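Q: Study each token:
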Amino acid sequence: MYKFLKFEEKEGVATMTLNRPEVYNAFNDALTFEMQAVLKAVKEEKTARVLVITGEGKAFSSGQDLKDAAMHADRSYSESVRTRFNPIVIAIRNLPIPVICRLNGVAAGAGCSLALSCDMIVASQEASLIEIFVNIGLILDAGSSYFLPRLLGSSKAFEIATMGKIITAQQATDLGIVAKTVPTNQLDEAVKGYTDFYKSAPTKAIGLIKKMLNMSQHASLEEVLDKEAEYQDIAGATNDHKEGITAFLEKRAPRFKGN
């Protein structure tokens, strides 16, 4: 169905794999539009309770395919970013389920931005992140300017953005960018630990928590408090909330269905 990515969904876990390993999963036009289509389908179909994004082969993504970009020399950078990358980042942040980056290798440029846009990153020890834009005289795009200072603070974000240094997976973990780093042969097991949790979790409540955390980046305390009250009513009306209360009273583990 898709030419440049793989997609599968099994038992509530959806996996989107960038599939251009011969160019380290660099983004051409077709790949970015296929990603948009997948993210739209996942949101509309409402069967997945967690999404994993990863790359085929040795890399997560090396960013924009510069050879492909040269074929669209008549298109402005702003048009490319607005029509190709921005919709992906917005879709990930608005997706009402957890999105986990399975960081299997290097994530550079827009590939780094894609990793940062996910709700959490689980990385191989051999993986790395690099904001490579400055090395070709460009600024951060695809959301890195938003995510980096919120994850790191302005000073460290400035250093990483302007010096184009490679950040190893362990360094990224120490900085708080990556949730967990494991040996490469344990990466699938580590990701599965998270997906097993989320596919059995109260999905509606987690989606609302995600919206609240996104909102808290720019809202006032009063706005956050008001929205918490509003969303608590929505969560309180779910079947999962009722199941949670029942399970607590019956002294057993809850069996959440995600609704």
Q: What stands out?
A: The beta strands are 5-10, 13-18, 50-55, 99-103, 106-108, 120-124, 128-130, 166-168, 180-182. DSSP finds eleven helices and nine strands in the chain. The two ends are 29 Å apart (CA to CA). The domain at 203-249 is CATH 1.10.12.10 (Lyase 2-enoyl-coa Hydratase; Chain  A, domain 2).
